[in-house]
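Q: Structure for this?
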Amino acid sequence: DEFELYFQPIRYAADGTPAMLEALLRWPQPDGSFIRPSDFIQLCEDTGLIIVLGRWVIHAAARAQSELAAHGWAGLPVAVNVSAMQLFNSDLLGEFIAATEAYGLAPSALHMELTESSLMHNPTQAMQVLKSLNAHGVVVSLDDFATGFSSMSDLRQLPLESLKIDRCFVTDVERNPRNAAICRALLSLGHSMGLVVVAEGVENQAQLDWLAAHGCDQVQGYLLGRPLPLGEVIALLE
Ligand code: C2E
Ligand code: MG
Ligand code: MG
């Protein structure tokens, strides 16, 4: 019981209204500091602990969504990050169903974020799991898009709702022509596949203006709101 979930808003680029919250794991330490997910998620994956930790995250996210609903934010989904090991070695659909039912939520109240590298681990099995999730109304986004190795022939078949452009391409998009070219291409690719495109790591107004002007649908980053405990996010939303 040492872990906590923080929540970061994802907003519509056009008008800043909230589209959903992303749940991010935090491991607070007695001295007030935090061990970052980048320092322990890999270890949990290597040891298999990610299965039980991931189950805790899914339940905590569902509990958070029911609290959001109690504050008038019933329509604001919570997106949960899921590792490859959870996708391939656990009953992910069963866990999403159990968590949403435990809190009386619709299946679409929770979204799932998967990285392309975890999908490409085993595209055939990934396709089966994603299809069953999709059939039950669980919405899936592709995280850190364009940072791993993905096959377009596999990607085009997957039932996805959105692509998240990784922070490394967004960081200087307004003044780096190469990153701007990549973001334009990813926006065009995502939109022509009928997907919502989300930009991660938006830290300043120039980035936001560039993204909005180029038709990016949703934005996430410190400019739009840092990851915070649920109570603070609800206060921020209000
Ligand atoms: P991610 O899913 O791509 O999450 C986005 C990361 O970017 C988060 O880091 C967030 O705090 C950070 N971020 C958001 N806006 C900004 C910004 O404007 N500037 C900068 N510099 N950073 C920003 P965090 O929370 O450290 O998480 C890192 C990664 O750990 C996540 O990347 C995700 O892959 C993984 N992770 C976090 N929580 C979970 C979890 O519950 N389960 C699993 N399997 N992985 C998780
Ligand atoms: Mg994510
Ligand atoms: Mg990401």
